[in-house]
Write a structure and sequence with these properties.
The protein has 453 residues and is an all-alpha fold. The protein is built from 21 helices and no strands. 55% of the residues are buried.
Length: 453
């Protein structure tokens, strides 16, 4: 798009680095857990609580900062998350016992929850509609980059004394990069118009998208809320029910098909499948991180070309197949013998391939698109809260389920959920490719069914 669009790309890229922060925290605990457990000999319940504790903080971060993003702006919320995660990473690294470590991860989780909705919100509001899917998908790419970075850090520091403490301390790096990058940016033009700062919005539009009709864009934004006196009255209108069903539903599909059991517990799964050492399990997990990162480029390349729903259909079908394979190989573990290691790695890689170009980026894109401007920050925070609730439930119970009912039955639960999610996408998820945010809101108001968008 040329040099004149430098600030558009730069703004989207810097905000997307919030995903690097979230991804690092998601991935680093997978390797650190093996060594924390060696030091403190945690039972399965405490392991589940330690891994999922970040999600407790994320619930509060997503809930509170949704309102704060509408009041103070998207930029300030993202900057505050960087500061919080920087401090939380230090607290985790120096924790003297598991109780303090859990509390520190809850503190980090507050930042993760806030940035997980604030960054995609920021990106969606600075992006032109024909590029919005690509730019919001960059946030998911940054998450996968953060996960990959955490796996590399895990592998590197696995040979060090105090290895898990160093793994957690490196979280200050993505926090610092995000903080410095956001200082250079303005807030979104849509939020500026919402606050009556039209002159500032004009400057931002001219800076990031110099070819657009600024007057038309600002009037389009104003038209979406000029007749609404109070947000409270606006929130509870009947036509808003379906966007919330879609937003919460796609978060259910994204999480409850089991992705974070793989991201958080991949080394544990590999040890369960017969990998002998912590180091070999961590290196195998690193392969998953690489594939996860690379396959996200598919969503960036094609979400604005072939659409959101085709990618969801294809990805969910692949996720379903891989989960059936995972359930089957653990059911016949005794027969398969040592080959189970290769089969487990292959099926998990196939799962990540399918998730990385579909549910991961498309889920975040959809919740940044389906809600009207006046409640977008609040509504996205509700979706992210539901995301973290689902995430907590799955992450906390996974090691318990492995211990109680075994790996085969545990993965079969995810198989059933995946089938349900395919039907949900077919009947309830709209195709938003190339549709302006204001047009999406108009469709809801006019009672257009999701399948007819």
């Amino acid at each position: 798009m040329g040099k004149k669009y430098f600030w558009l790309y730069f703004s989207a890229f810097m905000a997307a680095l919030g995903g690097l922060l979230s991804g690092y925290d998601t991935g680093v605990i997978s390797g650190a857990l093996l060594y924390i457990n060696q030091d403190w000999h945690l039972n399965v319940s405490t392991q589940g609580l330690l891994v999922s504790s970040v999600l407790i903080g994320a619930l509060f971060g997503a809930a509170l900062n949704g309102v704060l993003a509408d009041i103070f702006g998207r930029k300030k919320v993202i900057i505050s998350t960087a500061v919080t995660f920087f401090l939380g990473s230090i607290f985790c690294a120096v924790a003297p016992n598991v109780e303090i470590l859990i509390a520190s991860r809850i503190f980090c989780g507050f930042a993760v929850g806030a940035v997980t909705f604030a960054a995609p919100l920021y990106i969606s509001e600075v992006s032109p509609k024909e590029k919005r899917g690509m730019f919001v998908s960059v946030f998911q790419l940054a998450i996968t980059a953060g996960i990959l970075f955490s796996y590399i850090v895990n592998a590197y520091f696995s040979h060090f004394y105090y290895n898990w403490r160093l793994m957690l301390l490196i979280g200050v790096v993505p926090a610092s990069v995000l903080f410095l990058g956001m200082l250079l940016l303005s807030d979104t033009p849509r939020w500026l118009v919402l606050k009556g700062r039209e002159n500032d919005a004009v400057k931002v539009f001219n800076k990031i998208t110099p070819d657009v009709d600024t007057e038309f864009e600002i009037q389009e934004i104003k038209n979406t809320f000029e007749n609404e006196d109070k947000k409270e009255k606006f929130v509870f209108k009947k036509w808003l029910i379906m966007p919330f069903v879609i937003g919460v539903g796609i978060m259910f599909a994204q999480i409850c098909t089991g992705v974070n059991t793989i991201i958080y517990y991949a080394p544990t799964i590999f040890k369960y499948a017969g990998f002998d050492s912590n180091t070999s399990a961590i290196y195998a997990t690193g392969i998953i991180g690489v594939v996860n990162f690379l396959m996200t480029f598919v969503a960036i390349a094609y979400s604005d070309k072939i659409g959101r729903k085709p990618l969801l259909y294809l990805g969910l079908s692949g996720v379903l197949i891989s989960l059936i394979i995972m359930s089957s190989i653990f059911a016949f573990q005794d027969v398969l013998g040592s080959s189970i290691k290769i089969l487990a790695l292959g099926s998990l890689l196939f799962y990540i391939v399918c998730f990385a170009f579909s549910l991961g980026p498309i889920g975040m894109t959809l919740i940044a698109e389906v809600f009207p401007l006046q409640v977008r920050g609040f509504a996205m925070s509700i979706c992210i809260v539901s995301n973290f609730l689902f995430n907590f439930a799955i992450t906390y119970t996974f090691p318990i389920l492995l211990n109680k009912i075994g790996a085969s039955s545990t993965f079969m639960i995810f198989v059933i959920i995946s089938i349900i999610c395919l039907f949900f996408v077919y009947f309830f998820v709209p195709e938003t490719k190339g549709v302006a945010l204001e047009k999406i809101e108009e469709n809801w108001k006019n009672g257009v069914k999701p399948r007819d968008f």
